[in-house]
Design brief:
The chain has 331 residues and is of the alpha/beta class. It has eleven helices and twelve strands. It folds into two domains: 9-251, Aldolase class I (TIM Barrel); 253-320, Arc Repressor Mutant, subunit A (Orthogonal Bundle). Bound molecules: iron/sulfur cluster (SF4).
Length: 331
């Protein structure tokens, strides 16, 4: 399959946390240094720590310039995508370009943190305003089970890398811990996470749980009580916020107009390709209504579908003539 793509920009997306955010995805589907069991983009087909110019840097810069011309009121540019953004060997150059040409635009990086273990790369990433690094294992066994990393990566090195990054960057840091039922949801895991959080000292910790089906169907959402206990323990060192499936389920939409219903779908598929089941899970919409609505929206040219690893995936807009799959990071 040809994994090349001709665009690295997606959005802009209205985001509760970031305002209006423009996504930049520099990595081909599905290249990553990890193969997380919860990844919403599907299984990693190229598991690697090799940094390369996966997308032409000059083209990425041109596309960012064009997008910012079209959408001058962007609050954040967010590096995320179908794989690990820091695998792009010139991400530092792109960050410097945005910094020097658009000082009013903030930069956000979603990362699985592996590159933070290299001080030279960490220095290139330091100018971002917000970093959301993942740290999913409280020990090596959990790390291997949840993140299934490329050889050579260890949770100890990664935690140390995040802590060192904290010392060289003034970025806000929201440390994201993905909690999987039966793997890292015990009070013992919480105690180990607490020690890591004490070392890293992030601005806050986000406890994430499954939002949409991940790569492995068996991944479960811990009970609300387990999450409460974890939040209580980790909360001794930092503010803890519950995000993802368990939290999202609290707010099922009620009495939405057709326009609002459609807009929620468009906002969601603008940020990442989703199946009908993904949308049902993340938006709380009932599948029979949703499927009929997706058909209507596709006919109206608001969204389009294409086959993917878990069935039909919906994306925003009209289908380009020569399009290729593009996803977004599960974090
Ligand atoms: S969740 Fe992020 S780090 Fe994990 S496999 Fe998916 S893209 Fe890679």
């Amino acid at each position: 399959m040809n994994l090349a793509k001709d665009r690295c920009i997606f959005g802009p997306i209205p985001s509760r946390r970031l305002g209006i955010s423009l996504g930049v995805d520099l990595i081909p589907f599905k290249t990553c240094s990890m193969d997380c069991i919860y990844c919403e983009c599907g299984k990693t087909t190229s598991l690697t720590t090799e940094r390369k110019e996966y997308f032409p840097t000059d083209l990425a810069i041109r596309q960012i310039d064009e997008a910012l011309k079209q959408h001058p009121r962007i609050d954040y540019i967010t590096f995320s995508g179908t794989g690990e953004p820091t695998l792009h060997s010139h991400i530092g150059e792109i960050i410097r370009h945005i910094e020097s040409h658009y000082p009013e635009v903030k930069l956000c990086l979603l990362t699985n943190s592996f590159c933070l273990t290299d001080p030279a790369i960490a220095k290139e990433l330091a100018p971002v305003e917000l970093i959301i690094p993942s740290l999913d294992g409280s020990n090596e066994e959990e790390f291997q089970k949840i993140n299934r990393p490329a050889p050579g990566l260890s949770i100890e090195k990664i935690a140390r890398g995040i802590a060192d990054f904290r010392k060289i960057s003034s970025a806000q840091m929201w440390l994201e811990l993905f909690i999987a039922e039966g793997i890292n949801d015990s009070p013992e895991s919480a105690g180990r996470f607490l020690r890591m959080v004490e070392m890293i000292r992030p601005d806050k910790v986000q406890l994430n749980t499954l939002d949409r089906p991940g790569t492995e169907r068996s991944v479960g959402i811990p009970s609300a009580e387990k999450l409460r206990v974890m939040a209580e323990i980790i909360g001794r060192a930092a503010e803890v916020e519950l995000i993802g499936g368990r939290a999202a389920r609290k707010s099922e939409p009620e009495h939405l107009s057709t326009g609002e219903y459609n807009q929620r779908i468009i906002d969601t598929v603008a940020s990442r390709p989703c199946t009908a089941q993904d949308l049902a899970l993340s938006l709380g919409f009932r599948e029979p209504n949703l499927e009929a609505c997706l058909r209507r929206m596709e006919k109206a040219g608001l969204i389009f579908s294409e086959p993917g690893p878990r069935g039909l995936y919906y994306r925003a807009g009209k289908k380009p003539f020569s399009d290729v799959p593009r996803g977004s990071d599960g974090k």
